Amino acid sequence: MKYKYNVNLLCLLILAATTYCACKSHANTQEPEDVVTAWIGKTISFPPSALCQELGEIVPCKSSADKKYKILVYTDSIGCVSCNLRIDEWKRFERELDSSIAQHVDFQFYFFPKKNSNLADLFKRENFRKVVHIDQEDTLNKLNDLPKDMQYQCFLLDQNDKVLLVGNPTLNTSIWDLYVKTIKK
């Protein structure tokens, strides 16, 4: 009898703790509409200096001032960078842009390598031939206070760096459709 009482009490405590954690976790997350609404129309500030690399080699950073649109992708190196970045998806998206709009779009990849991750090896292995910005001081994030959730760390910007759309199309292809539709207007 005593044993049954302790098991019931333990189950009740676990249920209470789980409910508390779930509510606390839910309270710390923003609704997608709130995040998007907060970011639409904001102007992104870019760091004045960032190290640019292509396949691990330092290269001059390219200006995108002549492009009508930028797709900004911010990634930190927490967890699995190759899983989070989804390089194959980005390469596919770039191929999908037809020639009439591809010339108006610049992809800007910013990486904040928090730990000693070797991004160059990843880019070589994936044959990712894009100039990427290695932001060792996380300046892009500090200047803009980017959302913490990776699904909101991707932006479609106009030529003045104003946010037109928010969302990571590698996580939801409907977002890619919105990006393309907006670019084609």
UniProtKB/TrEMBL annotation:
Keyword vocabulary terms for this entry: Signal
Signal peptide annotation: 1-27
Protein name as annotated: AhpC/TSA family protein
Organism: Chitinophaga rhizophila
